[in-house]
Design brief:
- This protein is mostly helical and 100 residues long.
- The protein has one domain.
- It has six helices and no strands.
- The radius of gyration is 15 Å and the shape is elongated.
Length: 100
């Protein structure tokens, strides 16, 4: 079984997961957190509002990425783990810049 999964141990796999999972999580959060706002209104309020709510929502969107990183770590998929850290670092730097 592990031999079949070894083909996913690439940096590209990690980068794809790292860049696609946070926006997908944001979309899911927008559906569960706001029942009356449309997706565009949610993102407008998120980007305009700033403050603690925006930071918390952005941080919550990174949690699934860290779950994947943990899975890659325990499966010894080092290259995929490296790949997933690159977009995570970019995302965190963007969050710090956004808050200043």
């Amino acid at each position: 079984m592990k031999e079949k999964l070894k083909k996913f141990d690439t940096i590209v796999t990690g980068i794809i997961i790292g860049f696609t999972l946070p926006p997908l999580t944001l979309l899911v959060l927008s559906r569960f957190l706001t029942k009356t706002l449309s997706v565009s209104e949610f993102f407008e309020r998120l980007l305009k509002g700033g403050g603690d709510l925006s930071t918390n929502i952005f941080i919550w969107s990174l949690i699934p990425v860290f779950l994947f990183f943990s899975m890659f770590y325990f499966m010894k998929f080092d290259r995929a783990g490296y790949g997933i850290m690159i977009p995570s670092a970019v995302y965190c730097i963007a969050l710090v810049i956004y808050n200043f």
